[in-house]
Every structure is written in structure tokens, then in C-alpha cells.
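Narrative of activities, Objective 1.

The group set out to show that a structural description can be obtained from nothing but a protein's sequence at a throughput compatible with the screening campaign. Below is one input-output pair from the validation batch, recorded exactly as produced.
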Amino acid sequence: MIQVPFLRALATALLLLLMLALSPLAQAQQADTSLAESLTTRLDRIEAALNRDSLVENDFTGLREELQQVVEEASNKKDELQPTLTEDRARLEALKPEETEEGDTANPESATLKERRSDLEDQVAALDAEVKLLTANSVRATQMLNKITLARQQRFTEQLFNRSSSLLNPNLWLDGLTGLQVTGNAMSFLVSDWASFLSSKAAGQIWQIVGMILLIAFLIAGPLRNLLFNGVSRLARLETPNALQRSLHAAWSIFVYTFVPFLILFAVLLILKNAELVPPRVNEFINKLGYVILSISLGYGLVRVLTAPTKPQYRLLNLTTSSAHKLFGVAIVLLIITGIDLTFRETQQLLFTPIETTILISGVSAVLVAVLIWLAMRITLGDLEQDDDDQEDGMTSTPSVSADVSASNFLPGFISVFKPLVWLASVSIILSIILGYVSLGTFLAEQMLRIFVILALLGVFTALLDNFFAEGLDVSNPRVRKGAHSIGIPLRAVNQIGVLLNGLLRILLYIAAALLIFAPWGVQSTDFLSSMRRAIFSVEIGDLTISPIAILGALAVFFIALVLVRSVQRWMERSLLPATNLDTGLKNSIQTSVGYIGFIVAAMLAFSYMGLDLSNIALVAGALSVGIGFGLQSIVNNFVSGLILLVERPIKTGDWVVVGEHQGFVQKISVRATKIETFDRATVILPNSELISNRVMNWMHNGAMGRIVVPVGVSYDADPEQVREILKRVANESPLVASYPEPDVYFLNFGDSSLDFDVRCYVHDVLTSLVTSSELRFEIFKALKEAGIEIPYPQRDVHIRSVSSPNLDKQLALSPDEAQETREPAAPRQDEVDLPGASQGVDEGPGQNA
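Output recorded for this entry:
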């Protein structure tokens, strides 16, 4: 018999196993349901931190990153729960009982149905509450982000307009120069401390380390630098480089000039760190010095490739050699001043630099930067102004480089707009420094220099893109043609792809430049990227959520479906329909109808992919009805007329139709209009509504058979019976004339000059009517000739009435002009006309010659 303790132990074990098995699911459900609450807790903590007054820039940055993470988590969870909530609501709607007009339940419900509906209601309520809490957290986080932005802007403005001593204050100069001695002493203490540290750590190896550092610096600055430049040696030694070669050389040179000095500093620091010879304060000083060296090296490389004082063929700015040398010298002085200012500002706290010294150096540097930038602008625009003056005076300036080279150099014409802006900024900087707003003046000077560097880099790389896609993807290049053929791209598409890629890369460069320019003004790249991400993935307008990514996906689905529909249409056109006995017009109608149905199916698939509720299309239809009432009547009229043409088929593709003054063959019946190709190979595009509302003659509506009429006129001397037999025999013997109905010959009239007959016969194909008429005329003429029957000319009898005059002999002796002047004309009868020198009666008679 099983003991009770054993049963209890077994039950306890089973219960533990069940709890362990269900614990992950319970934890997952608890995690799901508590996500909104955890986000609320995090937001409460962040809001409490924002209320503190001691926040610095790094604190704001950390809080922004955490808030953006909260927004992203809430959005992701909401997107995850929303489909489930929609499905549960649909199921709950299906389980609702039917109600009568009085509001009572139509049929009794089972307990199972009620229980299931109750569970669904609870589930929908829980999910709806979770989604609403997540939405509220997202909105709250966004509001706090805006609050941080406003706080940063307010603090930035306060710091910018914080007034200090004026640069004209003598006390500032005394205190600032005294502070220089303090900074120098701090620097000497730092060097002496480092020397003592080196002597204590590596007294016997100091010269070996120094020698290794010098050797590495020599190798990097000498052979490695030359090797890097020799990597583009062919580009660097061309006499007349093209635009692409010049742009490639400029981009590579900027890279080498920028990173070689920084690489030397990095190698020295790496050696010293591996030998554990860098104290913390020295390490911090070298890191700050590295930022200064990197900035100055970038500026030097940029100035070097823009001016190219010793290589005018590689000069990117369209300047004379004299102006290039002047601009290069001004830029070097500007870089030296900027380097000194950056060094003092970066090492201010490390070297215990007094605030008066920082204000003095920053103020003087800002004034010098403003003056030098204004001077550089004058030098840059001097050649443009000189060229304009020479052109106005009728003179021709002598360029410093060849015309081919200068044509591809860049100096945008709109850069002259910057001249008044630079002048205004320079005056503002100097006035700010004089009035004591050193922070404002320093900031303006720094931003002006920063903007010029960014715009110069933007110009270099946009020129590189333009030249690369213009010359690197030139289809006349055999390598480009070979590459295009190898990957299956048509040659005409190569330039189009290049233009598209160039445009996309240009947009990215412009965005990067804008972010770099506006970053010091409070515009953060993280804000921009977050806004772009929200704009791309979901845009909420009230209760409507629009996802551009979903729209792009729906467009892709739509176009793929259209491609499949076009494939089916081509298969029907080439394989299926030719195997049937249907006429051409019906085949075209079937093919067009398949295209319309496929278009509707593709649109429905696209709507389904976007998750669009098709019931909402009623709203769109209502809006369209208003549009139709105002401006879309003709479009809808033509569309409906096109459907009528396809269904009733009064005309078909290939029919010979006459519409007003136009006639020809129907080429295509589209949604809005019908194309008709005339016999002169011109295309007439007629709206479908005109074909429905106006008179249209279709020669081929009931079939291809048609009737032709050939009129024939014979002399009055001919025997009509003989003529009828000849004409009928010719028509019956023609292979182009249908045997049934039989040809007929009709004696129509006694004409003015002939006996008029008509040969009326049918042809199997109305398109051959002109050829058949021509062949019948040839045969009729031949048969009448053989029978001796004459086809008369149009005839007219002229009777000359004799005139008696005593001066007739004199008048006959005169010239016609003199006789006309001296003659007294007699009054003619109604059937008479005057001729020079005589009166003539005109009587028309059939078959009689005068």
C-alpha cells in the first residue's frame, strides 16, 4: 500500500514541475503587461532629473538618448500589439448577438458563446489599455524631448549673450597677459613632471625611445607620405588633367594632408602607452592636441588643393596664380591663429588658464579671423570682378591656366552673394568683441570659418561626384560599354542610372553638410535621424497612421502584380488568342478587359498590403464624386465611353472608320481615347466620348466585304447593250471581284457628253477596294478599245454670230488692243458672251462639234 507521505511528496514534485514549466510563460506575460508601467517609471525618473538646475550638456545628451530609447521601445511594442488588438476586435464583433429593432436579442445564446465573448472582451480591454498607455508614454517622452531642446536653446542663448570685458578694456589686457605667464608655468610644470616620470620609469631607455619616436615620425612624414602621394602619381604628374583626374587628386590629397600628421601623433602616443610612459594628465593633453592637429591638417589640405599655388593645372578655384598665392598666404595665417585659439580653449582647464586670458585670446583671434576671412573673400572674388570689368570695357583677361582647365575649375557664381554676408558677419564680430560680448563674437567667427570649410569640402566632393558620373560612366568608353553588356544593362540606361545615383549621393552630402553647419546652433543629428525614422516608418495624423515604408512596399506589390498582368496579356496575345477563331476586335477587347481586371486586382493587393480598411474607400469615393462633379466629368465620360466601346464593340481594333473629316484604321482603344491611323500614316487621337456621341462610319462593322462602284462614260454612237455585256464580262472575269452577290451594270443617265454607266460589284475584303477599282478600270479601258467604243471628252459647241459694220475692214487691220478700244460692243443675249473683235453665241450640245 502506498504511504501518504510518498503521495504528498509526489504531488509536491509534480506541482513544482508544473510551476517551473509555466514560469517562463508567466514571466513573459508579466513582462508584456508591465512594459508600459516600466516605461512610466523611467519617465518619472527622467522628469525628476530634468527639474534639477545643475544639469550640464552631457546630462542633457544622456537624457535625450534615454528618452529616444523610450520612444522607440513604446513604438515597437505598440506596433507589435496593434495587429493582435485588431484581430481580437474583429473576432469580438463576430461574436456579438444579433439584435431586433426593439433592441432585444434575436436568438438565445449558449453559455459557451457568452463565456467566449466575455474572455475576448477582457482581452481586448487589456490590450487596448496597454496600447493606450504605450501611446501616452510615447507622447510624454516626445514632450520631454521638446522640453530638453528648449532648455538647451535657452542655456545656449544665455551663454552666447553673456557679457564680459570689452577688448578695449586695458585691465583685460593686463590680466590676460598675466594669465599667459600662469599658463606657461602650468605647461612647464606639466613637461617637468612628465620628464621626471620618464626618468623614473625608463631612465636607461629614454634615448632609445626618443630615437624610435623620431624614426617612426620620419618614416611616416617621409617615405610613407611619399608612398601615399605616389599612389596617385600618374594623376599628380599630368600636364593637362581632365576634371575627373583633378577631382580625384584633390580628394586623395585632402585625405593624405589630413591624416599624416595625426598618424604621427597616434604612433608616438601608441609607443609611449605601450611603454607605460604616459601619465593621465599628459594623455589628456595629447588627446586634446590631437583634435587641434586634425582640424588644422584638414584646413591645410583643403587650402592646398583649392589654391594649388605651384600647380595651376590642379587648381580647383578659378583664380590667377597671383591671387592663388595671396589666398594661400592668408589661409596659412588664418590656420595659425585658429590653431593657437583652439589649443588654448581645449587645454584651458588642464593648464589652469585664467578666464581673462581665454577671453583675450578668443577675442583677438575672433577679430583676426573676421578680418582674414573678409580679405580672403576679396581675393577670391577679385578675379571675377576684374573679368566682369574687362568684359564691360571690351577687354580680354589673360587666364592663368588653359581654357580647358579653367572651364572645369569651380567658383560658383552665387558665391558673390556671400560677400555682403561676410562683411556683415565681420562687422558683427568686431562690434561684439568691442561691446564685451566675446562669447557671441567668438561663436560667430568660429561658425563663419566652419561654414566655409564645410562648403569647400561640399564643393570638392560634389565636383568629384559630377565628374565621376559624367566621365567615369561615359558610354563612349569601351570599358563602360563592356561592363554594361556584362551585367545586362542597356547603354541608354547607364547615363540615367548615373544621374539617379548622383542625385541620391548629392542629397546625402547636402544633408550631412546641413547637419554639420547647424549642429552648433542646437540641431542634433540624433533629432534629425529620429524624425527621419518616424517619418519613414510611421506618421500619425489623428487616428490615421501612415507608413511611407508600407506605401513603398504596396507600390512594389502593385508594380509586381502589374508586371504579372502584362505577362499574362502578352501570353494571350502571342499564344492563346491566335489559336482561337475569334476576330481581331474581339481578341483586343478580351486582352484589354484582362488588363483592366488585373489592374483592379493589383490595386486591391496593394491596399491589402498596406492594411487599408476597404470600407474607408467610401470616403475616398465621396471625395472623388465631388471632384467628378467639378473637373473630372470629361475623364469619367471618356472612361465610361471606352468601356462601352469594348463591350458593344461598334468599332474594333483594325476597323476602317470615318469620323468627321478623319478616316483610317483603329489602332488602339484605351481608357481615355482611341487612336486612329490615317492613310497618310498620321495618328488621330479621338476622345472615346466623341465616338459614342457622334456619327461614325465603320466600313468593317458587319464584316470585311464591301461594295465598289466604277462609273464609265461611252460615246453616244455606242450600243448600250454591247457596252453592258462588255462591262459585265470584265467584272465577272476579275479574280478580285466576289462572285456572290453577282456584279451588276446600270445605265444611269444620258450625260452631257456621254452615256453614263455604273459597274457595281462586291469584294471580299474592303481593304482591296482601291486595288480592285483600279484593275477594273484597266480592263474596261482595254475591252472598250478592242470593241471600238469611244470614251468621249467633255464637249461644247460654240456658234459665232456674224457682225456687219462699216468700219469692219479698219477694225480687222487694227491690233486686238486697239480694236477693243475703238469697238462699240453690241448688247449680247443671255446665252451669248463677248469675244475680242466679235460677238459669240454659246450653245451647249451633246456630241456635236463646232
